[in-house]
Design brief:
Length: about 120
């Protein structure tokens, strides 16, 4: 059965809402760290998201792939930027990472298709 990154990110978002309610201090701390880490500086936000995606691919984290691909699309990533990043993932992580690089391609295709107007 094929994964839906829309479903994965939606399901995880619901669970994260529960965590925000149950452990608010921890979640506020994590959110502050994420905001600080992703803020543009010497490395812009798009390139930081590409790094985050690469780590998600290497870690084989479906939700990470979904959330970071969504962010990259919002930031205007080009397909070429995404593919070159995934090429580095495969180079550094070998076959198993290549399989999750393919999952990132599927996430990109699924999530960009939702942005296309119906024909």
């Amino acid at each position: 059965m094929s994964k839906s990154f829309t479903t994965i990110t939606g399901d995880v978002s619901k669970a994260l809402a529960t965590l925000r309610k149950e452990i608010p201090d921890t979640m506020q701390g994590f959110n502050a760290m994420a905001k600080g880490a992703l803020q543009g500086g010497a490395i812009d936000e798009l390139h930081k998201e590409l790094i985050a995606l690469a780590i998600g691919v290497a870690s084989r984290c479906d939700a990470c792939i979904g959330f970071h691909v969504k962010a990259l699309i919002r930031l205007g990533v080009t397909k070429e930027q995404l593919m070159e990043t995934l090429g580095i993932c495969a180079y550094m992580g070998g076959g198993p990472t290549l399989m999750y690089a393919a999952e990132a391609v599927r996430a990109y295709e699924e999530l960009t298709a939702k942005l296309q107007p119906a024909a």
